Amino acid sequence: MDTLVHLLHGFATVLQPVNLLVLLIGLVLGLIVAVLPGLTLVMGVVLALPFTYGMGVIPATILLTAMYVSGTYGGAFTSILFRIPGEPIDVPLLWDGYPMARAGEPALALGWTLFAALAGGLFAAIAMVFLSGPVAVVALSLSTPEYFAVIMLGLSSVVSLGGSSLPKALISLSLGLLFSSVGTDPTYGEPRFDFGISILEDGIEYLLIMVGAYGLGEVLTRMEQRTTSANLTSVGAIRTKLPSLKQAYAVKSSLIRGSVVGFIIGVIPGAGATIASFVSYGLESQYGKRRRELGTGIAEGIVAPQSAATASVGGAMVPLLTMGIPGSGATAIIMAAFMLQGVQPGPHVFFKSGDLVFAVFASVFASVIGMCILGYFAIKLLVKVLAFPEAVTSAFVVMFCFMGAMASRSTSGDLWVIVSFGILGYLFERFRFPIAPLVLGAILGPLAETSFMTTMISFSNDWTVFFTRPISGAIMALVVLALIYPFVSEWMTSRKRRSVETTTT
Amino acid sequence: MAILDLARRVGPFLVVFCAAAWLWTVAESFAISTRLGRAGPDLWPKIVLLLMLGAALWGMAEALFKRRPETDTSILIANATRAAGHEEDARQDLAADAGDPADRRPIFAISGMAAMLGYVAVISYLGYAVSTFLLLLSIMLLAGYRRPFLAALISLIGCLVFFVVFQRIVYISLPLGVGPFKELSLTLMALVGVR
Questions:
Q1: What is the mean pLDDT of residues A178-187?
Q2: Alpha-carbon distance A471 to A458, whole Å?
Q3: Which of A102, A183, A438, B120 could form a disulfide with A176 if both were Cys (CB 3.0 to 4.6 A apart)?
């Protein structure tokens, strides 16, 4: 009952005129970045971050959350209508959404997407509200060894699930952790890795790492790829036709499966909307009633990935708000918005600043509903964004990145730092190192180091405490499991492949 | 050609390894350090550096001895697309946005870096407005925009909008530049009502 009362207060906060305006701006921006060539969802959220300096913590998080939610939906339009996925999240929609559109039902294909996003998003929002409380209670009981183990679990799953090369992901993570240790040591006050350079003495702002690596790095990569704007073929009148109740009822299993899987994957650090979308489609192909027809343009092939993608947002909010562990690039940026306002998300904030937490919860509900309304009525305008010249977008992205650096501390040294991270981001893309572990390492590094050092001091420098205490030991075992999972999976796949080859020969 | 390919695969790991080894020596020289029974400020960076050294060695070994084609997709995505029978579709669709690797032109990325570095280097001399105009224009042209006059017009409008946003909305003091550029910046400030 308390939860519902708090949630109603949260809605009252979100429905205040200023917050509602911020929510609307966030939804529109999220939909645009998901469609606009040369901009990714995470990049869009990063670029919006500097604009939150002057806002309160509630409008700031509402803005970024709204962008995050609607960014999982906007790319569906171009995937279904033009076979151009706005984001990797939308790739599975190409396999059934586009064929349905080609078969003369583009409006219905868009309607299924809207239905799936709405239902999956609302399911995850409800699950998020009711699961967060118990998780926060558990998080509150953790002491520093357990908290350190939880951070390690978050970082290790990001490394293990983020890409195909574990050594590259580990290097990316360790660079992020190392950048976060530049400057004065928090325990002893010892200067570290500043090399006598004044701009490094205060440490490297994680904001500069995020904006540089995601923003400038991506622009440099796109410049090298010489990508041009899409030529849009005519698909006739662009509109959305919602499925009937009977049609919707027929896909209930796919919807429930997609929403539950999306939510669970969202909770796991490192596995965000893209993985949710693919895994849900994969599960549909294994367990769906019409699995043999998948790929021919059936509703289940749209509902499964889209409901999972949107549901993953609600899941990702749970570890962020209850433990202060962001699981993806987008949630890391939302966490950065909290920290820029002097709020460290975690169990203490969850219980002491209920107004803030429930405003974020309410903003997820409002965002899901708002994005569907916007998507329904503004689809024609949104699709036109696709024809916007990418070169112009790139130039303005660069300026927004510099604006972020200037607004941060207003020193010219920060401009050098941000360009350096832009070049590093480009090199990462060039040599196929994942960027997410770098960013998460930079943002979680100080928390990891503080909990590690506090444990070492409290337990007489006995490092075995991380493994001998029951809860931290169990979590550390999960860390090991997360790190060996890619090897086990690869071994099982190659074994299966060998057995298939043996059978066929 | 084989040596070039090997250098391309091993090179990044070698650079990381050397950098981590050098940073280890830097961490050794911290005034306060870890002694027997007491964790010092060098302990955490050294743990991270050990992780980096190990990962770099591992990466080098993989690059030298393992001939598995590398993909950027997560293991979960690979498993899901394999189960759905869309493994090849996913690989192509995920890579489509990046274009054909053969069409890559590193010179444009390097020119972009030069433009960004140049911007930071000259902003205090040319002032915010002029250097922003030049950066917007150069990025647009380097990114392949083929209408130079329109690009110049967009850059002019863009730099004025950014100037107004900084001066009137977020109240950030901007570099004014020197000599005639300072005069220009002051004139612009007067035009937008900033004294």
A1: 89
A2: 17
A3: A438
B40 and B22 together in one domain: yes
> Do B57 and B81 fall within a single domain?
no
In DSSP terms, A184 is beta-bridged to: A191
CB contact under 8 A, B105 and A226: yes
Under the banding of pLDDT at 50, 70 and 90, the label for residue A21 is very high
> Between A93-102 and B87-96, two packed helices, what is the crossing angle to 10 degrees?
90
Q: Looking at the structure, tell me whether residues B120 and B178 fall in a common domain.
A: yes
B71-110 residues touching A, CB cutoff 8 A: 71-86, 89-90, 93-94, 96-99, 103-106, 108-109
Q: Which domain holds residue B44?
A: 1-70
In this prediction, residue A261 carries a pLDDT of: 92
Mean pLDDT of chain A: 86
Both B113 and B145 in a single domain?
Answer: yes
- Say if residue B16 is in the same domain as residue B91: no
Size of interface A-B (CB pairs under 8 A): 254
User: Cβ contacts (< 8 Å) between A225 and chain B: which residues?
Assistant: 98-99, 103-104
What predicted TM-score, i.e. pTM, was given to this entire model?
0.85
ipTM: 0.90
Q: Does B143 reach chain A within 8 Å, measured CB to CB?
A: yes
The residue out of B47, B70, B93 marking a domain boundary is B70
Q: Are A45 and A330 in contact (CB under 8 A)?
A: yes
> How far is the alpha carbon of A7 from chain B, nearest alpha carbon, in Å?
33
- What is chain A's alpha carbon radius of gyration, rounded to the nearest angstrom? 23
Q: Is B68 exposed, middle or buried (0-12, 13-18, 19+ CB in 10 A)?
A: exposed
Nearest CA in chain B to A424: B113
Which residues in chain B have their CB less than 8 angstroms from residue A227's CB? 97, 99
Taking the CA of residue B175 and the nearest CA in chain A, the distance in Å comes to 9
Which chain A residues touch B40 with a CB distance below 8 Å?
188, 190
Are A226 and B119 a contacting pair at CB < 8 A? Answer: no
pLDDT tens across A101-147, in order? 888 888 888 899 999 999 999 999 999 999 988 888 888 888 889 99
A436-458 vs A329-340: helix crossing angle, rounded to 10? 60
Distances (CA, A) of A340 to A21, A54, A306, A320, A323: 21, 10, 32, 15, 18
> Of the residues B48, B70, B92, which one is the last residue of a structural domain?
B70
A391 contacts on B by Cβ (under 8 Å)? 139-141, 143-145, 151
Lowest mean pLDDT among A87-91, A305-309, A310-314, B65-69: B65-69
When divided into structural domains, chain B yields a total of 3
- Would the CB atoms of B143 and A282 count as touching at under 8 Å? no
Residue B140 to residue A190, Cβ atoms within 8 A:
no
Q: A192 — phi, psi (to 5°)?
A: -130, 135
Closest CB from A224, A412, A422 relative to B108: A224
The answer on B65 and B49 residing in a single domain is yes
Q: Is B80 found in the same domain as B53?
A: no
Sorted by where each begins, the domain ranges of chain A are 2-229+242-504
Give the residue among A418, A441, A443, A445 at the shortest CA–CA distance from A217: A418
Query: Which pLDDT score is estimated for A237?
Result: 64
